[in-house]
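User: Please predict the structure of the protein below. I'd like the answer in structure-token form so I can feed it into my own downstream comparison script.

Assistant: Understood. Taking the following sequence of 766 residues as input:
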Amino acid sequence: MIKLFDKGAYLLNGTELVPEEQAGTLKSRLGREVTAEEAKKGTIAYGILKEHNKSANMEQLNIKFDALTSHDITYVGIIQTARASGMDHFPMPYILTCCHNSLCAVGGTINEDDHMFGLSAAKKYGGIFVPPHFAVIHQYMREMYAGCGKMILGSDSHTRYGALGTIAVGEGGGELDKQILGDTWDNPYPGVVAIYLMGKPAPWVGPHDIALAICRAVYEKGYVKNKIMEFVGPGVSSMTTDYRNGVDVMTTETTCLSSIWRTDSDTKDFLKEHGRESDYKELNPADVAYYDGCVYVDLSTIKPMIALPFHPSNAYEIDELNANLMDILRETEKKAEKVAQGRAQYTLTDKVKDGKFMVQQGVIGGCAGGNYTNVVEAANLLRGKSIGAGEFTLNIYPSSMPVYMDLAKKGFLTDLMASGAVIKTAFCGPCFGAGDTPNNNGFSIRHNTRNFPNREGSKPGQGQMSAVALMDSRSIAATAANGGALTSAETFADTFGHVPSYHFDDSAYKARVYEGFGKAEPKEKLYEGPNIKAWPELPALGDNILLRVCSKIEDPVTTTDELIPSGETSSYRSNPLGLAEFTLSRRDPQYVGRTKAVKELELAREKGEDLLQKDADVAAAFTAIHTISGSEDVTLTNTEIGSVIYANKPGDGSAREQAASCQRVIGGLANITREYATKRYRSNVINWGMLPFHLKDETIAFDVNDFIFVPSIKKILAGSMDEIPAYVLKDGMAKAITLYILPLNEEEKEIIKAGCLINFNRSKRK
């Protein structure tokens, strides 16, 4: 059972929940008056945030992190930005891992060139470099850096180490650059929601089952959006820390800001095994703690789950799915039709044979599935069994070299290989569409983090489409043992719960990881392959802006995977203009051409060309502008031209800053939305100098290729942004609409006015 409280809740002595509606009883229970304002200081999150806050105001946080981490999709761009902004060393531990672009089959030397850049940057600026195949980013951070009371910032959205007592946040590269350059992560004090755990999960229930059940309960309601999820209650201690890590990493899929767990002796034992007992301290809520909401979870009621395409929240109990197979599959097929947009066919009902749902592929890996316990439980089930010689395949990626080594020493990898499973090295590819793409019209079950469209590597725009469902390793192994027929782990109930203690051996790390923190070598030359390009110059914000609508997306949610696709595209992420050619390529293939045409207009304007004579559309737009009261004297000189994307709710998913930077470098100047799915994408938009507009009206009074004029935008940023006058320009007429921007701090305003974070930092150093 999972229950969401209607309002906030008080937690007494870490065990007793008191709904906010019963706050009147607190005085008699405690013998004193307690206010919510006072009691919110009793959360674990409050204490950690206060310790890291550099401002005197806890309502407006200015956070300095203890460590930073990035993988090989993002670290080149981050370091290039920091270099352009005046960085000469890494002032804190910065861990660069090579777990996303590990495969070098696409783009020639591109990926390995990025790795060599990362190694040379670690030497030059004093960083830590983890070579390809050694560890996925988040497992390495769990093993080597996360600890109780710390804060860690990563450029990957699944930066979550709450089960180790660390508040970890996944943000775009711009936020890491701010830390490198001595600035802070600025954010209003977030709400904190209690995830109150009771009971104990059944042995056949894994961390993914619990995570998917929670995600199903909270996602659609936005219950924890941009808040911190604080895991408390006696149920925490019913799970090992390795198990908790598997639940924790999936909190990202709820759209929360971060997570934190109470700690106990098992947390201490985990850190001790990894040679870091000194990083342990007991973290518990105070005697009285107030939470802005509460998710009550009875772990004993959770059953094996499956999240069908195309979101982790689209979750069902496996038994529920099997009992209503055709009805649920038909509903999923309708979602597939929307994804395919007539460009590909995808079916699920055809996979039902003799009443069984037949799956084509299983994958266990990454920061969620590749943990020691998950792989051991799969091996225990498959020992002495065969996955068969049919369609079904099983690929397993242990999450780090130490995990791989211990699994090998104890014989679990041999058991898996003997069953027909393929064992691979630490790699995030299957999670983001760069590895193990199933066959066309195929269906893959994965203990990975996401199942968004295209996250498995298919290309619906080219008539190729497959899809992913999320499942726990235990049920994936059960399906494998059953020849690919979808099977709940409960079918093999007696198999689970026999996991020998893990032994961490860091000898591989000692042999190969470059440990350079505090040892910067300024004379070291950066290795820059031919694909590695600097960021192009971007103009400062104009007094007025003329926006051309280059895409209009009215889907309920637009993911960062749609804004800039993952998979093989990621090989080009060290080349800003090269990568930008893929922007919205799987959602709106005409977008790039449209926005590049707008960019050409802006470049011509900057050169002083008379666009009123040269371009009929611009001339017509200015004719309309001059009919607006107060805008009669607006000229090309004081009006910047850029493109704009409309989307209802963009930014769910990855923290990749490229979702914003790709828009910007080829002409983007603004987004217009109903709301942002995540804080991290909005932050990326701001750091890349784009205006995060919201539409006030219910109607969308503009179409693709229309112009929207926003006068006096610089002045507006200095005052109220609650009602921003704007005008849709059509047929020589100007139709008024109202936009608004949610609060920006002063630095964010200056970044937008400067044109991007790079320009802002350069100006600070002059």
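That's the full token string. The longest helix spans residues 110-125.
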